[in-house]
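WARN no homologs supplied; continuing
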Amino acid sequence: MILRNLISKNLLLTDLMGQLSDDILSQNVNGITSNSKQVQSGYIFIAIKGKKFNGENFIQEAKNKGAFLILSENENLNTNDCLVIRNNSARLIYSILLSAFYNKQPNVVIGITGTNGKTSTVEFCRQIWTLAGWKAASMGTLGIKIGTNQNETIYNSSENSLTTFEPSELYKNLSFLSEKNVSHLALEASSHGLDQFRLDGINFSAAAFTNLSHDHLDYHGNIENYFTSKKRLFNEILKKRCAVALNIDDDFGKRLYEELEKDKHLVLTFGENKKASIKIKSITHNNQTLKMSVEYKKVLYNSTLGMIGKFQAYNVLASASICIALGMDPNFVFRALSYLKPARGRMEIVSSKKLNSTVIIDYAHTPEALRSVLSSLKEMKLKNGKLITLFGCGGDRDKDKRELMGKIAHKHSDTVIVTDDNPRNENPAKIRSDILTGTPNAIEISDRNKAIKHAVSILKENDFLLIAGKGHETLQTIGLETLPFDDYAVAREALNNFNMTEI
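OK structure emitted
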């Protein structure tokens, strides 16, 4: 695509790049990247200052490899093939350029943001749309999943294991999905992705807010900055007359509702709050299902959900609310809820024929997520059953949540086992020590494989074992090594080898 034609697709690009020389504007753009290693002849290179690397240090390499145009925030670069981007907007321009370059997206794209529940909500949206007969996809922590009413699925993972893909990967995949005739896409909008302008080139039809609690404060600094990043999706990225669904039971969801320009969007709220558009009347556990009753426009709808955990009902309602806000028939949507299946590693039950106890794998890796899971399990377990919690915390991440998560596990569990969970480049013993400050009576077993096997070995009838933190993940990162590890596989093996004489 000729550069002149590419920038004509966006007014911001035209204003920024319209004064380039005719030689540059007449160049054919073969690619756009912020990674100098990916540069080929005919590429545009964006020099971005990242956490680990400064793109300005790789400008000469990009030129040597064939980049015909360099975009940088460095005002000292003043050559014909370098364009200075002001106002710290290199990331924004990068996303908009990629959006114009790939130029195709599914007709309906919705963004789901919040601390917890994003993965489940995008997956539930995909399933509802698939049940309606549309070719739909979800994109996020679990990669890309495409479904049709014939249950065809394609599953890909993000190259960088990010909740919100990097821009070069994101917009390329949006074009790929459009070419595959995917009409509806639900994607996870992380605070990092929003703060770094990765999503600003997407033509969203709708957005939903699940909740907000302590997480990623090592990046954002404080909870207000974290909330401001989430709020960008609604106040800056969404265009007018988009559909919005908000969890009004959440304190930040309520704030967002109060601060939102409600005349700008079609807003639907959900929750137990009496002012909610979709009001929860009751949620009750029944063995391994949830019965949920909600009221919408004075009509009562009852659904049986094939999953456990009250918070899962909120994720289901987030997906139902955004689908209804987009114009789907409420009768169809609420009927569809009974057919939904939980996402991988989200309150996933590991079954066993040998033992009458319940082992659950969940991705809970934040204080609020852990509290929600444990509160739900406490409601379900029988009086003579015990609740065992096994978890760790990731290295090189928010350290403030470790003691807090230890306290939550200690308060809600009969037994706590503290183990490793992707310590990365941090001392694993120090991470466990931070957690143990909050749960001093916990059992400490560093090796996660041994920890899970020990937890299974002490199970008795009617006990619940929660293995938290990794969920769907199939790798464990220790130092510079990344090795295969799957909580579900290890737990299932331990259950299959369980010696019934130990009961």
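The chain has three domains: 3-91, 104-270+310-329, 348-502.
OK
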